[in-house]
Amino acid sequence: MATEWEPDSCDRVRDPGAWLAVNAGAVIQVARRVARHRGLHPEASDALESRVLARLAQDDFQVLRRYGGGADIETYVAVVATRLLLDQREASTGARR
């Protein structure tokens, strides 16, 4: 199922704060898909959604500002979510799997 992104989301994110406000629902959909793919429980999925939104807003939207349009924005957000999960796993277990 394709995620509904607002127009002009496929090129560089020009105003990351406004972009995130408009596309928060689509970001949450991507985080849910990543959580489902990784077999997370609903509570962990909710936590991931919040962490992805927070990560995208962190440091004056640095992660969104780095998006250069080379990949689809949906893929970019999915990678951010996956990296958050991997970083969490590494911090809790000390190893990546």
Count of helical regions = 3
Enumerate the spans where pLDDT stays under 50 for 5 or more consecutive residues.
none
In one word, what is the shape? globular
Order of helices and strands: HHH
Report the sheet-strand fraction. under 5%
Please give the radius of gyration in angstroms: 13 Å
**First-last Cα distance:** 28 Å
Helix content: over 70%
Major pleated sheet: none
Which structural class should the secondary elements be placed in? mainly alpha
Mean pLDDT: 88
Detailed description of the structure:
By secondary structure, the chain is an all-alpha fold. The chain is built from three helices and no strands. Helix 1 crosses helix 2, helix 1 crosses helix 3 and helix 2 packs across helix 3. The longest helix is centred in the middle third of the chain and has 25 residues. It is globular, with a radius of gyration of 13 Å. The mean pLDDT is 88.
How is the secondary structure organized here?
Layout: H1 16-37, H2 42-66, H3 73-93
Helix pairs in contact: 1-2, 1-3, 2-3
Please outline what is shown here.
With 97 residues, the chain is mainly alpha-helical. It is 70% helix and 0% strand. The radius of gyration is 13 Å and the shape is globular.
